[in-house]
């Protein structure tokens, strides 16, 4: 019932978020959390795959670091920052925004869009769990804290759950306020990463040779690579936040990402190089080999600085979770706009339309994250599940980007080079991550399959519904409405009968609304109102338009509301009725009884919400019947329009109309007498 203004390619839009110091600070606080915390667990995963610190060699360090550096460069810098950020839909980023501007090039493109979006949402549930758990486990590297916590992993789980609950509880404040709070912390985090790494790089500059891509390729193919091609699965963890970076573009604007990414990347690379230099300096250290699940990121910090490093990393882990949560809000909003998911209640806590909050998504992710923490408990187990689903998203994004580059940007050769190179590269990462499936990856794949199932069911159900959608001209039924409102043989239902409609057309109405008025027991009222809400791109638009078709009893109302305006339809309609009554366009609706000394000029209201149902007798194929049944089952969990439109205190009733008007043929029954039956 909310019709958003149609989106279009952002090269033509005029609502770009300007580049400023404040906006850049918000960008650091909102966008880079996931990719910014990768140094906490990437080197740890690489080391574990190689066999531990006793197997560290210069070939391994330089080769692994080279693979990490070029993974971040190719996937994050080249694909996402330089290419993907240009493919936005009215300022919004993410795989659904990308699909919305390329879908005209093939109906089948809905498949990679849904698959990629489902995988990203599933991986987003895992991000808060793995990053926060990793940071909390770092507390054990502080002797004084270890004496208190001990090796009992349940202590880590409890602390992680408390932080996760606090994180999701504050989402209602909005990403702008959160970004202002997180921005300075994240800026200091990156400076800390770069500074700590630089100290070890200066002490052992040989690690700079890792910038040579030949080192990485050679080690990948080397017999000394104990992990084989599976090492790419660990390297891929360094760039898992790239897709979230693209999805969060609507929150901060493309220009602010361009301005901040070089700083972020330099700090990340310095951290990886520093950890490599520390490992070279401590290769074969027997004392370190005794530490279970050794994490170079924490161990490389001097003992006096380590407590501060753990606290700062915990803050960064919370911000990492924020990047995926805000990205999930954007993704679901785009999916709803594309009719791939049900409409949900959305709040806009800030002045920027891209900064939104969806309570249902927040709560579902909250529950999912808690389940992940309780199910896997340790970061090592979570890392095994992490990253597999996101490789699917990246492959799907590459496919859609080909059509953007070729169809919209009109490039001829580059799109083919781009899609072949990146699908092959991401295919390698996907294959290397497949070993994670039985070690926890199954969880995110199952979640992705569940989300994909919801989107497919909703899409198929909507497609069947659209085939039955019929619009009828309002003017053709004015005479019937006039006769009905003056027909004393029917009881007066109310003074003002209001129908909410999806359509923005002024002259046409959904057949089901007219069917409800005339055929589902005629509904007599003094005036009939057909109303829809259009959300504008401006935050504070507060306007309405009315078409009365030359009558004083039929009104087609369009509410034009900014995205920051609460949709209190009941209150707004009363104002409109009052305006029309004052202008003489609507007869005064007097009544004789009232608790007030002077009764008002506005009569009673009843709001009718149409619900389409699938009757057992409908003549429809079994496959379509299942599609509709699944969509309606999902709709029941998506929330109530009564709440979305501020109708909680209004007189609302639901009208159920058949989705299909064609019914199966039924043979005529033969009448027999009672005596014949007794015989």
From TrEMBL:
InterPro entries the record matches: K+_transporter, K_trans_C, K_trans_N, Kup
GO cellular component entries: plasma membrane
Alphabetic keyword roster: Cell membrane, Ion transport, Membrane, Potassium, Potassium transport, Symport, Transmembrane, Transmembrane helix, Transport
GO terms for MF: potassium ion transmembrane transporter activity; symporter activity
KW Membrane (keyword) present: yes
Residue ranges of every copy of the K+ potassium transporter integral membrane domain listed in the record: 24-470
Membrane-spanning residues: 60-82, 108-132, 152-170, 182-207, 227-246, 258-281, 308-335, 356-378, 384-406, 413-431, 437-459
UniProt-annotated location(s): Cell membrane; Membrane
Domain K+ potassium transporter C-terminal, first and last residues per copy: 497-652
Reactions catalysed: K(+)(in) + H(+)(in) = K(+)(out) + H(+)(out)
Topology in membrane: Multi-pass membrane protein
PANTHER family, A to Z: K+ POTASSIUM TRANSPORTER, OSMOTIC STRESS POTASSIUM TRANSPORTER
Purpose of the protein: Transport of potassium into the cell. Likely operates as a K(+):H(+) symporter.
Family: Belongs to the HAK/KUP transporter (TC 2.A.72) family.
Protein name in UniProt: Probable potassium transport system protein Kup
Organism: Collinsella stercoris DSM 13279
Gene designation: kup
